[in-house]
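DOMAIN: structural biology
WANTED: fold as tokens
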Amino acid sequence: MIVEQRDYHVYAGKLPEVLRLYEEEGSPIQREILGGLVGAFTTEIGTLPTYSTLWRYDSFADREERRARLAADERWKGFLARIQPLIHTQRNRIMIPTSYSPLR
């Protein structure tokens, strides 16, 4: 099992719009194709404004296959056209749980 953390640093003043678009459009598509949403968050302290998600996958190969399906989905392409102008930068990382992690 792996967990992918995706951080989206949003232009100032645009976080409410990003959250609305994800809630209404993006997240339903992602949940259908990616499954495994661990959580979605905003930051209180640190780099602001930031929208972060954690996604659980069975393996890196599972992640690659699901992300490829998402990228090919026409609904997702339309969503990206609306959301990308609101995002300044993005950071992703893959995390592997330790042997004592409750999430395994």
Q: What stands out?
A: The CA atoms of residues 25 and 79 lie 7 Å apart. The two ends are 6 Å apart (CA to CA). The first strand starts at residue 2 and ends at 10. Residues 15-34 form the longest helix (20 residues).
